[in-house]
From TrEMBL:
<dbReference type="InterPro" id="IPR036396">
    <property type="entry name" value="Cyt_P450_sf"/>
</dbReference>
<comment type="similarity">
    <text>Belongs to the cytochrome P450 family.</text>
</comment>
<protein>
    <submittedName>
        <fullName>Nocardicin N-oxygenase</fullName>
    </submittedName>
</protein>
<dbReference type="InterPro" id="IPR017972">
    <property type="entry name" value="Cyt_P450_CS"/>
</dbReference>
<dbReference type="InterPro" id="IPR001128">
    <property type="entry name" value="Cyt_P450"/>
</dbReference>
<dbReference type="InterPro" id="IPR002397">
    <property type="entry name" value="Cyt_P450_B"/>
</dbReference>
<dbReference type="GO" id="GO:0004497">
    <property type="term" value="F:monooxygenase activity"/>
</dbReference>
<keyword id="KW-0503">Monooxygenase</keyword>
<dbReference type="GO" id="GO:0005506">
    <property type="term" value="F:iron ion binding"/>
</dbReference>
<keyword id="KW-0408">Iron</keyword>
<dbReference type="GO" id="GO:0016705">
    <property type="term" value="F:oxidoreductase activity, acting on paired donors, with incorporation or reduction of molecular oxygen"/>
</dbReference>
<keyword id="KW-0349">Heme</keyword>
<dbReference type="GO" id="GO:0020037">
    <property type="term" value="F:heme binding"/>
</dbReference>
<keyword id="KW-0479">Metal-binding</keyword>
<keyword id="KW-0560">Oxidoreductase</keyword>
<dbReference type="Pfam" id="PF00067">
    <property type="entry name" value="p450"/>
</dbReference>
Length: 404
């Protein structure tokens, strides 16, 4: 296979089972290839683990340049606004990351465990009461991370339901199916977060938003716009990705890896390694990318291929996570896999700040479900399950399950 034989990006065939099949050929024959995209421009697609990991840490590949006027638009790729932390480079990114990183230390996240466990248990209690047939997306996968994010931001309990509704509408927006409802939800969320910041500034609480308002680095602190933008970033990254990864992972265990579900029921001590393997193996992203497009700020090389300045570059983290040079039997789900340096949370300066929280939520969710509902299973055939194939995620609209 040569680069000119590749189809238009995003490639066809991606699903929650894994990345598009073409990536296996790309890794073997043209791991760094220039391809046409749905946005009408050509972009470099990087598919091999070693190249993806190195490029993610290369400061010459700019996120900020993707947000300037006239930047190439790659159809089917993730887009952000210039103010978001994921859109910043160099000293601007370092400044913002330093101010917010204290909220995501291992110690701080571990201190949240009892609260996350409480939320998880309350949702499982409600499922037990409502059952034996429940939509797991509606009853568990969505409210678990969203309630945790709401409480992290200090959203009052009486506001959580409206907050959750608007956050869900905002997080599933895409270029093709945004609609007036999502835009209205975006406006309501913006107004709510602005008001919440004002309230926390006047009446600080024991929550992340209060901490971020107070965070200082010498005379530097987060601006009002940065606080609002970070609130949206936390909703999009901390809620939507976790909810969808959990739902997709549960579907994979129920329908295609039932023996692994039964093993986790019998051996809950395997759950931490199972979480890492599910993060590696189960595809969440509709375009098989989680590294966000970048633009070469100067001429450089990736995997021995020259990338001219100004060219857009796409990283396929899901392809990298199936690289046989790094992972034994890469297309197999192995919940006992010990060597698992997956890069599902990214790498380099833009690695996911909330990765420890996401891991914790996944682990507590699996532990609770396997303990409380060991015979949990799908209530309808997999081919009848509705999906929302958005610009970013493969999202299960519902996941009906039954037990007993």
């Amino acid at each position: 296979m040569s680069a000119h034989e590749l189809e238009e990006f995003p490639f066809a065939g991606s699903s929650y089972h894994g990345p598009a099949p073409v990536y296996a050929k790309m890794r073997a024959e043209c791991p760094v290839a220039k391809v046409p995209t749905a946005g009408g421009v050509d972009a470099w697609v990087v598919s091999r683990y070693e190249d993806v990991r190195a490029a993610l840490a290369d400061p010459r590949l700019s996120r900020a340049l993707t947000c300037v006027d006239g930047a190439p638009r790659i159809g089917g790729s993730m887009t952000t606004t210039p103010e978001m932390i994921i859109s910043l480079d160099g000293s601007e990114h370092s400044r913002l990351r330093k101010l917010v990183a204290g909220a995501f230390t291992v110690r701080r996240v571990e201190a949240m465990r009892p609260n996350v466990q409480r939320v998880c248990d309350e949702l499982l209690d409600a499922i037990q009461e409502k059952g034996p047939v429940v939509d797991l997306v509606e009853a568990f996968c969505v409210p678990l991370p969203l309630t945790v994010i709401g409480e992290m931001l200090g959203v009052p309990s009486e506001d959580l339901r409206a907050f959750e509704k608007d956050a869900r509408a905002f997080a599933t927006v895409d270029d093709r199916a945004g609609g007036e409802e999502s835009l209205a939800a975006l406006g309501r969320l913006n107004d709510y977060i602005v008001g919440l910041i004002a309230d926390k500034r006047a009446n600080p609480g024991n929550d992340m938003l209060s901490d971020l308002i107070a965070a200082r680095d010498n005379d530097d602190r987060l601006s009002e716009r940065e606080l609002v933008t970070f609130g949206f970033t936390l909703i999009g990254a901390g809620f939507d990705t976790t909810a969808n990864q959990l739902a997709n992972s549960l579907l994979a265990l129920f329908e295609h890896h039932r023996e692994d579900w039964d093993r986790l029921v019998a051996q809950p001590e395997l759950i931490p390694t199972a979480v890492e393997e599910l993060l590696r193996h189960v595809n969440l992203f509709a375009t098989d990318t989680t590294g966000f497009p970048r633009i070469a700020a100067e001429d450089l090389e990736i995997g021995g291929v020259r990338i001219p300045a100004g060219d857009p570059v796409i990283f396929s983290l899901t392809s990298a996570n199936r690289d046989g040079d790094v992972f034994a039997d890469p297309d197999e789900l192995d919940i006992t896999r010990e060597h698992n340096p997956h890069i599902s949370f990214g790498h380099g300066m833009h690695y996911c700040l909330g990765k420890q929280l996401g891991r914790m939520e996944m682990a507590l969710a699996l532990e609770g479900l396997t303990r409380r509902f060991p015979d949990l299973r799908l209530a309808k055939p997999e081919n009848e399950l509705p999906w929302h194939h958005g610009e970013i995620n493969h999202t299960l609209s519902t996941l009906p399950v039954i037990w007993g």
